[in-house]
Structure formats: C-alpha cells, structure tokens
Amino acid sequence: MHSQLALIERYREYLPITDATPIISLGEGNTPLVKAVNLHRLIGASGMKLYFKLEGLNPTGSFKDRGMTLAISKAVEAGARGVICASTGNTSASAAAFAAKAGLKCYVILPAGHVALGKLAQAILYGAKVIPIEGNFDRALELVREIADDCQVTIVNSINPYRLEGQKTGAFEIIEALGQAPEYFCIPVGNAGNISAYRRGFKQWWQSGKIAKAPMMFGFEAEGAAAIVQGKPIANPETFATAIRIGNPASWQEAELAANESGGLIDSVTDDEILHAYKLLAESEGIFCEPSSAASVAGLIKQLKAGSVLPDALVTCVLTGNGLKDPDSALKSSQVDLTPVKAEAKQLVKAMGL
Ligand code: F0G
Q1: Phi, psi of 270, deg, nearest 5
Q2: How far is the CA of 141 from the centre of ligand 1 (A)?
C-alpha cells in the first residue's frame, strides 16, 4: 500500500515536513532497481551482483524530482510567489513541472547551447520563463544567488536545504530493495549534490541501526570538468556529458566528505569512457540513460580495473536521467546510415545484411 503515498509522505519521519506542509507530488520515487544480466560479464566481473537504480523513470525523467517535491512543497508552505534555478537542464525541467502543479512562477537560467533539447522542451512546455545566458552553469548559479532575494523568489537548486533531504530517499529505496546496503555505490558527480544526498540517506539508516554497514561511495566527474579531483575550480569546464559540465560544484565539501568517510573516492572519467558505458548499457542491458548518467558505470569499469572495486561485490550504480532527453547525443555517437532504401522486399533483405 505504501507505494500509493507520495514519496515524502512515505518517508516523512526522516524528512522536515509537518502537518502544515502541503504535499506537491507528481508520483516521483519508487524507481526500479534492476539487476544486470550481461554487463558485469562483459566487464570481466561475472560474479558481481550489479544493480542499476533507474532514476530516469521519475515523472520528469531524472532524480531531481526526489528533491524538488520537497523543495516546492516547502516553498508553498512558506508562501513563496515563485522559484528560480540555474540548470544544466534536469533541475529546470523538474522545477518547472512541480512549480506548474503548485501554481508558482518558475524562472530558469540556462547555459546557452549546452542543454539537451528534451530538457529545454520540458521547461518550456511546463510553462517556465526560460532564459539562456552567455555563460556556463557556474555563472548562471552565481547570478541566481545574486538576484533571488531582490526578486523575492526561492532558489530551488541543491543549495536549497530541502533538495538534498528529498534526494536522500533514493538511498532508502535501494536499502529496502536489497534488504541491505550495497558494498559499493557509484554515481555521477556534477554539482555534487546527489552523492552528498545519498550519503546522508545511507548514514542516517546506518546510524539508526537499519543497516549493518554503509556503502563505499564512489563519485565520478567528467575529466574536463573534474574540479574536485583536481582540487581547484575549472573556469571553462568541457564535456559532452552536458548535465555534469560544471566547474565549481556547490556541494564540493560535503561530497568529498561523503567519499572519504565512507572509504570511497571521487575520481574522473573521460568522455570516451562515458560514451563506451552509455552504449554498453543500451546494447547489453536495454537501458537508455543520459550520457552523464553513464559516468557511474564508466567509473565502475575504471575502479574494477584499478582493483579498488572487487569483482564479486554487491554494487549499485545510479543512472540519474533518461536517455530520451538527449536524442542528439545518441544519434551523434552512432554511425548509422539512415538513407532510405527502395520499398521492395529484395532491397530490404539486402539492406538487412542477410
Ligand atoms: N546526472 C544528471 C542526469 C544530472 O542532470 C546531474 C545534474 C547529475 C548527474 C549530477 O548530479 O549535480 O547532484 O552532482 N544536473 C544538474 C541540473 C546540475 O541542473 O540539472 P549533481
């Protein structure tokens, strides 16, 4: 029965909500945890128990909905008029959808030319005021911080205290599905909020005795945007994984602590490694995730080779967003000839290569 409750009602004893909080829900959370049947063998770890948390099956197609349901509910409770966010795309889609349901105005500031088309389309259709800037995500977030107070709008980026609290529910669901925590936990890192949120969730249930051990947290930045790995902000981050094209992560310290105190690591993966994992997930498991999401699997492959993840371990990779948001990346990364053939059986069979 509990799955009929909204996500933040289901976990209300762990979240900052009261009877006065109006619950704004789109049916988020409760996403599938799917076991790999092929991929682990293809990466030389046939004994691995490998699970994928399919966050792309949330209502707006990414994990952001877990935090946004709480952030928007609290904004409504506080009497906000509107909300604002900087975004590489997914936060804006989620904020726009929840704001629409709550009847709030939503302002979305995006790095021009670096947001996947599906995400842009979502924010526009949900009715947000979409403003691209001549600058990257980090600059957009600086501007949002600068103007939010004066404009009397609530920031719903992950610097909003409720976002990460909502997002930690992903950890609870993984524990419930496995009956324990995974040994290793792999996740992409952009603004570094999600790894911090999952650590909060795992730590909270470990401290309350619900699990015997919390997982080692492994976070993966894109190599061209690997500020935490390099120990300094990156002025001009670049990666084809646009969702994590971020040079100065807002939750830098909490993410570093999450990795360190859990016995894990924040590392980077190259665009080639991300692309390889992106295709491998699709071709071997039937999972179409975003390029950025595949950074978790790219990182797993790297750590397995380095010997820091054991080949027979229990592992969970979070696949943060739905591949359908970014069909351009899918098509650009595949060399297929789409020239039409004559509509004749003989020509068709020939084109099939039979
Ligand atoms: N994966 C996807 C699909 C994302 O959209 C993001 C972040 C991340 C991973 C990284 O998560 O920032 O918590 O470390 N997207 C943000 C946005 C920045 O604006 O949509 P993070």
Answers
A1: -80, 165
A2: 13
Distance in angstroms (rounded) separating the CA atoms of residues 306 and 314: 17
Q: The dihedral of CA 111, 115, 119, 120: what is its sign?
A: positive
Q: Please state whether 183 falls in left (phi above 0), alpha (psi between -120 and 50) or beta.
A: alpha
Ligand 1 site residues, Cβ closer than 6 angstroms: 62, 64, 87-91, 158, 188-194, 243-244, 290, 292-293, 320-321
Give dist(CA 110, CA 88) in Å, integer.
6
pLDDT digits 0-9 by tens, 279-294: 999 999 999 999 999 9
pTM: 0.97
Between CA 228 and CA 221 the distance in angstroms is: 8
Integer Cα distance of 1 and 21 in angstroms: 22
pLDDT tens for 148-177 read 999 999 999 999 999 999 999 999 999 999
User: Ligand 1: distance of its center to the CA of 191 in Å?
Assistant: 6
